[in-house]
Amino acid sequence: MTVTFFSTFAQADETAVKDFLKKQSPEEERFISLLKKNKIDSCLLLFSLSLKKQIGTDKLIADLKKINAYYSKYPKPKTTPSLGQASSGVGAFGHDINGTWEKQSLYQFIDSNGKVIYYFTLYYDDSEPVGIIKNYDNMDMDNNIPILKPIKPPH
Fold first, then answer.
1. In the predicted model, is pLDDT for residue 77 greater than 80?
2. Which residues, at least 6 apart from 7, have a Cβ–Cβ distance to it below 8 Å?
3. In 86-134, which ranges are E strands?
4. Phi, psi angles (nearest 5°) of residue 36
5. For a pLDDT cut of 70, what percent of the chain falls above it?
6. pTM of the predicted model, to two decimals?
7. pLDDT at residue number 11
8. CA angle, corner 48, sides to 16 and 70, nearest 5?
9. Helix, strand or coil for residue 125?
10. Contact 119, 106 (CB under 8 A)
11. CA atoms within a 13 Å half-sphere pointing along the CA-CB vector of 132
12. In 74-153, which residue ranges form alpha helices assigned H by DSSP?
C-alpha cells in the first residue's frame, strides 16, 4: 500500500508511523470486510461515540447501506490513503485529534466512463483506540454542489 505523507514538521518519526499503521490498517480492513457483507451493526461499533453523536446513528446506517450497495455494483473502489502529522491538536486534514498522526482513507467508486460517482472517507488517528473511525465524510457526486465555483451576488 502506498501512503501519501502530509507533514508540517521535519522528518517523520518512522517507528511511530509504522506502529500506528500496523495497529490501524487491520481494523480498517475489518471495517471494509464487514461493510461489504452488509454487517451494518458491526460497522457501527467501529465509529467513535462522538462521531455517532455528531452525525447521528440513523444517518450513518443509511450511509453504510448506500456504500454497501455501491460495493455490490463496484466491488473495487479506488482507494487512496494519506497520512499527516498533527499540529497543536489539529490533524493534517483539519480535524481536532488527540494523537500525533492522522490517516485519511479515501474510497472512490468509479463508473465505466471513469467518472467518480460516490466517495467516502475514513479518518483515524493514533490515539487509543487506534482502530476506531474518528471522522468520516461522503458525497454522492450526482448531488455535488461545486464548492469552489464562484457565486454571483444577486443584482
1. yes
2. 84, 85, 92
3. 101-110, 116-125
4. -60, -30
5. 76
6. 0.80
7. 52
8. 100
9. strand
10. yes
11. 14
12. none
Four-CA torsion 64, 130, 106, 97, nearest 10 degrees: 100
Q: Is the pLDDT of residue 47 over 50?
A: yes
φ, ψ for residue 111, nearest 5 deg: -80, 180
Count of CB atoms situated within 10 Å of the CB of 35: 21
C-alpha 60: how far from chain center: 13
Instruction: Give me the domains of the chain, ranges plus CATH numbers.
Output: 13-143 (3.10.450)
Q: Which residues of 7-134 form beta strands (DSSP E)?
A: 78-85, 101-110, 116-125
Helix H or strand E encompassing 139:
strand 135-140
Give the burial string for 92-130 (b: 16+ CB within 10 Å, else e).
Answer: bbeeebebbbbbbbebbbbeeeeeebbbbbbbbbbbeeb
